[in-house]
Amino acid sequence: MLYTDRVLQEAIDKNPNEPEFHQAMTEILHTLQPFIDDNPKYEKARILERLVEPERQFIFRVPWVDDNGDIQVNRGYRVQFNSAIGPYKGGIRFHPSVSLSIIKFLGFEQIFKNSLTGLPIGGGKGGSDFDPKGKSEREVMAFCQSFMDEFYRYMGADQDVPAGDIGVGGREVGYMFGQFKRLTGLYTGAFTGKGIAYGGSLGRTEATGYGLVYMMENMLSTLGTNFSGKRVAISGSGNVAIYAAIKSAQFGAKVVTMSDSNGYVHDPEGIDIEAVKEIKEVRRGRISEYITYRSNAKYYENGLVWSAPCDIALPCATQNELLEDGAQELIKNGCIAVAEGSNMSTNLAATKMLQNNNIFFSPGKAANAGGVAVSALEMAQNSSRVAWSFEEVDYKLRNIMADIYNSSYATSEQYGMKGNLVAGANLAGFKKIAEAMLLQGAV
Ligand code: NDP
C-alpha cells in the first residue's frame, strides 16, 4: 500500500464521524502522492502522520445570558494544527453547523494555504455552533466575551492569532479583542481583522474578495482573456462575496448572481452591489429583499445558483456548495473558469468534472489566501507599530496573489500536471511545511 494511502486510511479510522476532515485529507494526500513517493525521506520522518494529527485541539463550554435572562450554552472549538512556519493563524466561525470535523478540515487546509502565501504563519481554526443571526447586539457581545473567557489562555500575538470567518466580522472581532485585552492587560496584535481605529489594517475587509478576483485575473490571463464583459456568477452575500463582486465590476465584468442560505437572486443586467451592501451589511437582512431594489431581477428560493448562465463562477458561501449538479450546469452553459472563494466549495467529483471539461479551476487554498495574507500584513504592521496606506496593502496583496498563482502553476507543470492548480497548490504548500518540519526534528 502506498504511504499516502496508508496514512489516509489510518487517519480516517482514527477519526471516525469527521466527513469534512476526511474529504480535505483525501483531496490533499492524493495529489501529494507522486512527490512523496519520489522522496522516501518524508515517510522515514513520518511527516504525513504528523501533518494529519493536530498539534493541539480543544473543545470548551461557552455559557452566556440571553435577553430574557436565560442561560444558553454553546460549544467552542480551537484546533492548533501546525506551527512549523509560524504562530497558528486561522479564522473563527460562528454557525450552527460548526463541528470538530468542520474545524479540522478548515484547519488542515489552512496549513497549506498559509504556507502558499510565503508569509510566516502556521495553521489553525476555531469556532462555535453559536448562530449570530437574529441575536441582539448585547447577546452577540455576551457570547463573544464568554468565548474569550476560555480561549484567551491559549492565544496571543506569538502563539495563535485568530481572525473572522463565517458569522464573525468586524463587530465580533472587536468584542473578542476587547475581552482579550481586558483579561490579559496586553495590547498586542492578538487578532486580525480588527477595526481601523484600534490596529486593524486598511484593506483587510476587502482582502479575500479582492484577492480572489486577482487570482482569477491571473487565470484569465493564461487563457488569453480578462474580466471585461464577462458574466460572473457569485454565491453568498457575505464578506468574501461582496468584495469579490465589487472588484469584478471594477474590472469590467457583470456580476449576475448572489445568494444566501435561503436562495439566490439573478440580475442579468448586473447586480447593484450597493443595494446588496445595504441589505447585508447595514440591515443584516436577506438576499430576497434585493428584488425590491431592481424590478428586472428574479429571486429563486432554494434554487441552484450555478444554473444561471455565466462565464466565470466564484463560489463564496460555504463548503460543498458546488457539487456535481452545479458543475454540470456550469459545463452546459459554457463557463470557462472557477475559483473557490469559500473553503472546499467543491467536492472531488465536481472538481474532476470541471477539470475534465476544460474549465480552469483554482482551489480555495490558493484563491482565497488573500484574506490570511493581509492578516499577516496586519500582524507585521502591529509588531512594528506602523500603519500602511490602503494602496500599499492592496499592491502587496495583488503581488502575493500573482506569486501564489505562479508558484501553483509552475509546480503543476514541474510534476507533469500542467494547469492542475489543485495539485500545484498542494505540492507547493506542502514542500515548505515539510522542509520546516524536517529541519526542526521530531516535533
Ligand atoms: P460571511 O458570514 O460574511 O458570509 C457567508 C455567506 O455565505 C452568507 O451569504 C451566508 O448566508 C452564506 N452561507 C453560509 N453558510 C451557508 C450554508 N450552509 N448554505 C448556504 N449559504 C451559506 O462569511 P465570509 O464571507 O467571511 O466567508 C465565506 C466563505 O469564505 C467561507 O467558506 C469562509 O471559510 C471563506 N473564507 C473567508 C475568509 C475571510 O477573510 N472572511 C478568508 C478565506 C476564506 P446566510 O446569511 O444565509 O447564512
Structure in words:
- 47% of the residues lie in helices and 15% in strands.
- α1 runs antiparallel to α2 and α5 (100-116) packs across α16.
- The protein has 16 helices and twelve strands.
- The chain has a seven-stranded mixed beta sheet, sandwiched between helices.
- By secondary structure, it is an alpha/beta fold.
- The mean pLDDT is 97.
- The two termini are 26 Å apart.
- A hairpin with a 5-residue loop joins β1 and β2.
- It has helices at 3-14, 19-38, 40-44, 47-51, 100-116, 137-151, 170-184, 204-222, 239-250, 273-282, 324-332, 348-356, 364-367, 370-383, 390-414, 421-439; strands at residues 56-65, 71-82, 88-94, 122-128, 160-163, 231-234, 254-260, 263-266, 298-301, 312-314, 337-339, 360-362.
- Bound molecules: NADPH dihydro-nicotinamide-adenine-dinucleotide phosphate (NDP).
- The site of NADPH dihydro-nicotinamide-adenine-dinucleotide phosphate (NDP) has 23 residues, from α9.
Keywords, separated by commas or semicolons:
single chain, about 45% helix, binds NADPH dihydro-nicotinamide-adenine-dinucleotide phosphate, 16 helices, alpha/beta
- Provide the spatial order of strands within the biggest beta sheet: 9-8-7-6-10-11-12
The coarse overall form would be globular
Amino-to-carboxy terminus distance: 26 Å
Query: What is the succession of H and E elements?
Result: HHHHEEEHEHEHHEHEEHEEHEHEHHHH
The class by helix and strand makeup works out as alpha/beta
Q: Count helical runs.
A: 16
Share of helical residues: 40-55%
- Residue stretches low in confidence (pLDDT < 50, at least 5 long) are none
Outline the biggest β-sheet. 7 strands, mixed
| Fraction of residues in β-strands | 15-25%
Report Rg.
21 Å
Question: Care to count the β-strands?
Answer: 12
